[in-house]
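User: My collaborator sent over this chain with a note saying "see what the structure looks like." That's all I know about it. Can you take a look?
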Amino acid sequence: MKEELMNIEERLIELETRIAFQDDTILALNDTVARQQFQLERLQRQLKDLTEQMLRSQSLIRDLQQEAPPPHY
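Assistant: Without extra context I'll predict from the sequence alone. Here is the result:
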């Protein structure tokens, strides 16, 4: 009986240790996901800004190409 109680106590300690480790892992993973979400949102904003900048540049180039040549040509 005493040996059985010790075995149960050892198993309980092992389970508590595993749960503590899993809690730490879950918190670390959550921090990683939150950081990646922030980075993803930042990259999406940058991509949107770059796309808009590229479209403005293309429009400006098109406008310059459509201008009549100077009179001395």
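A starting point for your reply to your collaborator: The mean pLDDT is 91.
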